[in-house]
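Lecture 7 notes. Example A: sequence first, then its structure tokens.
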Amino acid sequence: MVRSTQDSSATGHLGRDTRKAGVKSDTGPPDHRWWVLVVVGTAQLMVVLDATIVNIALPSAQKALGFSDGNRQWIITAYALAFGSLLLFGGRLADLLGRKTTFLVGLVGFALASAVGGAAPSFEVLVTARAAQGAFGAVLAPAALSLLTTTFTDTRERAKAFGIYGAIAGAGAAVGLLLGGILTEYLDWRWCLYVNLLFAAAAFVGGWRLLRAGAPPDRPTLDVPGTLMVTSGLFCIVYGFSNVQRHSWTTPSTWGFLLAGVVLLLAFVLWQGRTRHPLLPLRVVGDRDRAASFLAMFLSGAGMFGVFLFLTYYMQRTLFYSPIKTGLAFLPMVAVLVAASMTVQNSLLPRVGAKPIVPTGMLFAGGAMAWLTSLNANSTYFAHIMPPLLLLGLGLGMVFATSMNLATARVRPSDSGVASAMVNTSQQVGGSVGTSLLNSLATTAAASYLVGRQPTPAVAAQAQLHSYTVAYWWSAAFFAAGSVITFLLFRRGKPRIQASPEDSEERTPAAM
């Protein structure tokens, strides 16, 4: 039996010997840990889909509240800025206060912010509510993943749990597009925010009953200077790339924020090596498998969110799909992603390790991006769109579940929250950077295409198609780079089941 250190804030779980003896934990029967997965998965789905569900509702919200096209992007940016910049702080809160407390506070705060946003009478209230959603999401997401990490320590059960969780993380954005289309078309754009109350209520009741209270016995001290540096640095990075959508790279509001972000993050890294109580202990990112997992989440997030954006525009503006039809078009990809996540976690990872899985998944995703460059105004869904989407789902399913599993393996219980936060930070910042960068490249490509041509509707439409093609090629480049980097970094062979006594980490189970 694999022995593990039980986090006092995680819900009770039993080893194989305990299960055979028929002993129950103090939190209830062994089966409760699978209900914990349902609770955590519900919360994670709410956070992930909220990054895209509002996109489809934006035109209706703009008409209702009367804000300008220039201000429209702040509905998305406000969420991304707060979420991306506060994730590491939110992860440390889970280590300081306990996973249950942080999880429940995050749920309540997210629900209240969603209610305010849904009832917003003005643009300013809606933007403030979106920022609050992002802030509480930054508290909630790391707590959810660290609960999963400390609840499932049995090798086979951990594989299944992370397979499901990885599928939720990868498919949530596509589910958000579908749900946003349904709610906007049949109810009202405000329900794209109100629907979070249903998710939060279900997760809160389950978390209140199933999770065990308490903070880790060896909880760390909060690194205030480190928190300020990394929060400010991440804010500057996300804001700088978001600013590219409205201004050029040469404006001070773009390169100034990017430069400041880089300087602050470098200062943060230097400080973490000197302080006695680091916010992000270097041992968390120093492990090769963990570092490779963080980079995989960053690069795949950059490529994935970008393609969702441009493929959504293509289907609605070029093929004239409705919002609901656009959302439905992504469902086959979601199905393959879920199936791939489960198969990889349960069958492939325990046998061959991450080294062949994640780089291959990156290659599949990159191939899907290259395939999408063949789309034109006469393309059809079943012949030209669905096949590359299926390949993309296969690739992302191989990347997400494996990376999330190994990124949180063999960490000390006191570092579980911040390690989980790094997973979310990598994906969120990658998505923000990728979306902003690809949007800038696509806009530039469309403008270049129009130079020297008559601005007829047909030429304008072709310019849009050209811009999408450029974005797909760059997404393919992200995934190609990810394939090379992860192949070089991941260790060969099966994942280690348990840290050896001489390791710097406490003896906790590894990913499997």
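Example B, a different protein, same format:
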Amino acid sequence: MRKTIVAGNWKMNGTREANRELLSQLVAGVDVAQGVEVLVCPPAVYLDQATSLVKDTAIKVGAQNVSDQPKGAFTGEIALPMLQDLGCEYVLLGHSERRTLFAESDAQVADKFAAALDADIVPVLCVGETLEQREASQTLPVVAAQVAAVIDRVGISAMAQTVIAYEPVWAIGTGLTATPQQAQEVHAAIRAQLKKLDADVADSVSILYGGSMNAGNAAELLSEQDIDGGLVGGASLKAEDFLTICGAAAARLK
């Protein structure tokens, strides 16, 4: 059975004091009995603080990126053993900002994905199309190719305990959001792609929606059959909004 997950991607935001206040409110507000897995992904410099503040709570911590190399002369990079040392359980990979701003290729993302699996850290594979690709009716082929690059690298069985996040690039940080029907179409296509290779894997993979999910639209998005949670950007920096989204995710389980 696939998990319902709400993940907060803090991106390049935060201070020690702001993080402490936000996490204290989330720890107080998250109800483990609701059955939703709650994840926060702060900048790398705050991972140690975050894991300390949520220790022995229902909240998990993930990194925003990682190297596929275990150690060495890679100035500025972060290794998976470092994430293990800090107690990180998840890592975002292939976020559109990494793909577009830092030119990460499908092959690089696949290598990182494989390395994360080897390190027993759950990779969250981010996929999505640009506005130009959507307008050219290329959404499904583009997303399918991004997913296929990882499956070709690790094999379908390895996908069973991983997470995929569909995040239309045109809806990230723009205030635009895919309609529930647009999002569901892509989520269903991803699950169908997995099902062609292994039905059990397709049923176990959580597929999250990312792309300006907020307190106002979360319930409608999360009512769709194949949307198993959210990868939340700006709204994850506001405790009240993030907890509202977590409540919307819990409602889909009832």
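Note on Example B: The radius of gyration is 17 Å. The mean pLDDT is 95.
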